[in-house]
Specification:
Distance between the termini: 49 Å
Mean pLDDT: 97
Shape: globular
CATH architecture of the largest domain: 3-Layer(bba) Sandwich
Number of helices: 13
Low-confidence stretches: none
Radius of gyration: 24 Å
Strand content: 15-25%
CATH class of the largest domain: Alpha Beta
Structural class: alpha/beta
Largest sheet: 7 strands, mixed
Number of strands: 22
Number of domains: 3
CATH superfamily of the largest domain: FAD/NAD(P)-binding domain
CATH topology of the largest domain: FAD/NAD(P)-binding domain
């Protein structure tokens, strides 16, 4: 690979790019990485990590309320949004330093500059030019804001982590995981929250029982949910409030408006056209199972591609690229049966097929489902329930999907994901002794089923 400045040059310092860079350098490759912003990407800087810290903060209010049922009297509790944000920022700075240290220890050369391709092997990085045998695009995505009148009056998840103060009333426009997560965060921190979504139910693509169950639980917590309500325009009133006109009539008023209307890949200004890299109709980088673009020595991983937009998936994809190029072991990233979570309140954990997907795949399926009041709330008195569901292929009895809404759902589904990935059967679940008293034991004690005929 002599004749090039680098064996691998990575454009983007998020989770997928950092993993590919570190592993490739560990295999002996000469690796450069360009990041024009902060190392860590969406997840560490402005996504899942700071979001989860805010979720923890939002839970405290209910914990304080529930304490009375367990004999605790807690007086004088106060919340400071500026203090929470300052503490969060300090942790993000620490994590960014960890990422930098890991790259430097691995021998990766970091360039704090924007990079763009000039041709299939040459990049302009700030004021410099470099060549590379292999190039990896790992530039992630960014929030999408619809071009409606007054859109500049709103903010996105990027700015939500840095609001100078909490709005008393907040409208969240959108219905994906970011929308429902921030609805729970702001509600838990004392805001009056309205979530308005253009479709008939939020969290499109998730199991229908999960969607409807979470909807009901969020409304119990005082979150107002409007469906079939796309925004048409934002205007600022004389009193400083923002009025959101809805496309199908009516409006809502808030002190802050958050756009959670999807994300788009960061493929602009990268010079991909000059390198001949093919994009999808939505502007994502099109890749094969080995994360190769149509230009064989140019790869792409993470949210900039057309695949699953999850941090652990990007990390797996980055690792697979390193193994393929420099580890002597061609590796495809596995996107089947990926467990995932929505840190809503209550949270969702899910792995495998939804009921609708299973019906489209198999001739018949068995559905096991339960919902119950968690033991904790027998004394707290809180009106919150938990949902658990297994989807089973009738013919093979393999568990092809597992879904949960309730406290600790993401922690529980991580373990259930192993069973689904291992293609275990309902009999394997039944043969496992439950841990009592836990919510998780319900997954191995489900007995009542409904058999549905599918299309597969």
């Amino acid at each position: 690979m002599q004749g090039y400045d680098y064996d691998l040059f990575v454009i983007g310092g998020g989770s997928g790019g950092v993993r590919a860079a570190r592993m490739s350098a560990g295999f002996g490759a000469r690796v450069g990485l360009a990041e024009r912003d902060r190392l860590g990407g969406t997840c560490v800087i402005r996504g899942c990590v700071p979001k989860k810290l805010l979720v923890y903060a939002a839970h405290v209010r209910e914990e304080l309320e529930d304490a009375a049922g367990y004999g605790w009297s807690i007086d004088g509790a106060r919340f400071s949004w500026p203090q929470l944000i300052a503490n969060k920022d300090r942790e993000i700075v620490r994590l960014e330093g960890v990422y930098r240290n890991l790259l430097e220890k691995a021998g990766v050369t970091i360039h704090a500059a924007h990079a763009r391709l000039l041709d299939p092997h040459t990049m302009e990085v700030g004021a410099q030019r470099f060549t590379a045998q292999h190039i990896l695009i790992a530039t992630g995505g960014r929030p999408f804001v619809p071009a409606i009148p007054g859109h500049e009056l709103g903010f996105t998840s990027n700015e939500a982590f840095h609001l100078p103060e909490l709005p008393r009333r907040i409208a969240i426009l959108g219905g994906g995981y970011i929308a429902v997560e921030f609805a729970g965060i702001f509600n838990g921190l004392g805001c009056e929250v309205t979530l308005a979504y253009r479709g008939p139910e939020f969290l499109r693509g998730f199991d229908d029982d999960v969607r409807h169950f979470l909807h009901a639980e969020m409304e119990k917590k005082g979150i107002r949910i409007l469906l079939n309500a796309p925004p048409a325009a934002l205007t600022k009133r004389g009193d400083g409030a923002i009025e959101v006109a809805l496309d199908r009539g009516g409006s809502l008023t808030a002190d802050g408006v958050m756009f959670a209307t999807g994300r788009v890949p960061n493929t602009e200004r990268l010079g991909l056209e000059a390198a001949g890299v093919q994009l999808t109709r939505d502007g994502a980088v099109y890749v094969d199972g080995y994360s190769r673009t149509n230009v064989p020595h140019i790869h792409a991983v993470g949210d900039v591609t057309h695949r699953l937009q999850l941090t652990p998936v990007a990390i797996r994809e980055g690792a697979a690229v390193a193994q393929t190029l420099f580890g002597g072991r061609p590796t495809e990233a596995d996107h089947a049966d990926v467990p995932t979570a929505v840190f809503s309140q209550p949270p969702i954990g899910t792995v495998g097929l939804t009921e609708a997907q299973a019906l489209a795949t198999y001739r018949a399926i068995d559905v096991y489902k339960t919902d119950f009041r968690p033991m904790k709330h027998t004394l707290s008195g809180r009106d919150e329930r938990t949902l658990m569901k297994l989807v089973v292929d009738t013919a093979s009895q393999r568990v092809v999907g597992a879904h949960m809404v309730g406290t600790d759902a993401p922690e529980i589904i991580q373990a259930i994901g192993i069973a689904v990935k291992a293609k275990l059967t309902k009999a394997d679940f039944d043969a496992t002794v439950g841990i009592h008293p836990t919510a998780a034991e319900e997954f191995v004690t489900l007995r009542e089923k409904v058999t549905r005929r599918g299309e597969g």
